[in-house]
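Recall the central idea of this unit: under ordinary conditions, the amino acid sequence of a chain determines the structure it adopts. In this exercise we apply that idea directly, starting from the sequence alone.
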Amino acid sequence: MTDQQNTAEIWRLADAKSPAFFELSDRVWAVPELNYQEERSAAEHAAMLEKEGFRVEKGVAGIPTALIGESGEDGPVIAILGEYDALPGLSQEAGVAEQRPIMLGGNGHGCGHNMLGSASLLAATAVKDWLAAKGIKGRVRYYGCPAEEGGSSKGFMVRSGLFDDVDVAICWHPSSFTGVSKAISLACVEVEFTFRGRASHAAASPHLGRSALDAVELMNIGVNYMREHMPSDARVHYAIIDAGGIAPNVVQAQATVRHLIRARTLSEMWDLVRRVKAIADGAALMTETSVVAQQLSGDANLVGNRPLEEAMHANLIRLGGPGFDAADRAFAAEFQKTFSKEDIRASYGRFGLSVREGESLSDDIYPLDYVAALSVGSTDVGTVSWVVPTVQCRVACYAVGTPGHSWQLVAQGLAPAAHKGLSLAAKAMAGVAVDVLSQPALLKAAKADFAAFRAENPFQNPITDDIEPPLDMAAH
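Accordingly, the structure predicted from this sequence is:
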């Protein structure tokens, strides 16, 4: 299926510009910003797009840090998705195999989104250059997507119609291993429950008070009891956002808890949301308080596309692994000393692989039809995959066993291994884009596969019309 002449050329175009995008990744790593606060990171991406001659639109979908860069005319539209948000509490010095925060309590790129956005932008740039050189009709769009970590910006972008004319969407994620991503994720919504009661003196007149904090605690207990009666792959997590103050001698008049509700499918998720809301109502009833639920974000589960997955796998097989050297492996081995054996076993298990003793970095391409472990998370790419044929890959950028959302991942973010993985990801994505643009049969097959799924599965965007982008969610 892969046109070897075209893909070889697109890979040369990506290699020619990769050093500038390694630098972009490193600059974003140095300014880690949380959901919807990625002002400097988005500005870096916008500046690179403008430098490369893209038509740039900033602040799309009502989100100041979301942007689109487009190049080309007419023809199929290829979307390449990038991210650049960081995580709280993961500040860490680079290249140090011990926990050493740069700023205590600061942010860090513990999911590798500094690499993710940079590789996607490099892929889009290579496709832009290829279209110009070939004189082929087609458009490539880079989507700068903030707030993947629970902010669901892609869902808001879908709702705003920004994918309505897209033919194919392509993306990737840093990993310990390289291969096509399994289209398995959990649909989810994030909801804040704010309880309001009545303040009073906790000793002199406790009978006059109605504790919102009691309501939060009862709700959490109710949800915990519900766990026995959920689908086995569903998940509910919570964080108390506002406990009602620091004075124990005052009955707390207001308290807020945030629940993240996940399930395998959209229909299972909405049913679980209904049950969690009923528990909140029950907690309010028991405490004679009131409760208001406000949804902040939501993601659909991922939908696969077999023709695109086969094209991505073919590109990765031809490219081979990232090409790690002895120095890369020695560096990664130092980090492996900080992992548990269970970390390393789980890392292999997520991709259906057997443990290889002494392997610090993986240069292999894992099988297309691997049997995945059941432990999965959520991503707002899922929402895109319900409206556009979508494909993703994972590419090895760090030591085998590195936990996601960890200081160890942050510390490896500037390493040569990270740059090698970034380069491979960009070339794989660009190769798929060229395949779609130069092979009408592939685009037709991808659309037919997508249409067959949607004919049997109605779609409700978890981002409903009444939800505004939670631009201040990181401030809590």
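The mean pLDDT is 96.
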